[in-house]
Specification:
disordered C terminus; alpha/beta; 7 strands; Rossmann fold
Length: 279
């Protein structure tokens, strides 16, 4: 288990955050491609597209994807979704999210998210996948913010054009913008990714980690002396045993309220016992 300890002697100049890439860092597959069968069943794509996305998923999982492959995938997917009804996409994702994504969340990643929250850091998911997919996953994981690619829609349907592509250097720019608005101290913040294309994001923080890195990122991490982590245990969230003895934040809040109420009750009882009896 990775223990995240702040240096309490260091000057504290702002809040801190942990930035997580999504695909192959928090979950074991490509989030976008994971929904291809659901989109097929919803009538959005044909069988040929399902097979093509399945092959893309296989290539992505086995060897990762370099810049040219990612660009090719981006163009293919943006063209594929041209004309899709935005609301229908959101409904399909909502209906199938737990069946498709919950079983492929890395236990190690979920534990890290818990640890960062308990240390008082915000958790931010930063992904090149579409916001319609990433935002519900971020909510499932308890992320404080989600930064994801946004497609242009007109009259309730995708045009096939991209408004904001969160990829490569754009990820670093996005977290810099978020750090400015939220008051994050990036030098004391953390970042996690599996891909060499995310080097700008990793280099933007003081604590970068390569997770299940592709070969190019592994070489770069070794050269820069960045820690390398291996995540290998996908598990459903409700079946997990929390990594720390401390409960998650909502439970902590409830416990604090309960403790405060109990303390107040004891003080009230003690004051009643000390109070002289009225004649």
């Amino acid at each position: 288990m990775l223990v995240l300890v702040e240096n309490h002697l260091a000057p504290r100049t702002g809040r801190t955050a942990a930035f997580f890439d999504l695909d192959k860092t928090v979950i074991a597959k490509s989030s976008t491609l994971a929904f291809s069968r659901s989109f097929y069943q919803g009538g959005l794509i044909n069988r040929r597209a399902v097979l093509r996305t399945a092959y893309a998923q296989f290539v992505y999982l086995v060897g990762g994807a370099d810049h040219d492959q990612m660009e090719g995938m981006r163009k293919y997917l943006s063209e594929l979704c041209r004309g899709w009804n935005v609301q229908q996409v959101r409904e399909i994702v909502a209906e199938t999210l737990h069946d498709l994504i919950d079983p492929i969340i890395y236990d190690e990643a979920a534990s890290l998210i818990e640890e960062h929250h308990l240390a008082g850091r915000d958790v931010v998911i930063v992904s090149a996948s579409g916001a319609e997919v990433v935002e519900p996953i971020g909510e499932m994981l308890g992320a404080d913010h989600v930064v994801a690619t946004r497609m242009i829609a007109k009259d309730g349907a995708y045009t096939g054009e991209i408004e904001h592509y969160v990829y490569g250097p754009a990820k670093a720019e996005a977290i810099a913008g978020l750090a400015e608005s939220e008051g994050y101290d990036l030098e004391r913040s953390y970042a996690y990714s599996d891909s060499v294309t995310d080097i700008p994001m990793l280099a933007a923080v003081g604590h970068p980690y390569a997770v299940n890195p592709d070969r190019a990122l592994r070489r770069e991490a070794i050269a820069r002396e960045w820690p390398v982590l291996t995540f290998s245990r996908p598990v459903r969230l409700h079946q997990r045993v929390p990594s720390l003895s401390m409960p998650p934040r909502p439970v902590l809040a409830a416990a604090a309220i309960g403790a405060a109420a109990a303390t107040a009750g004891l003080l009230w009882y003690a004051s009643r016992r000390r109070r002289p009896a009225m004649s």
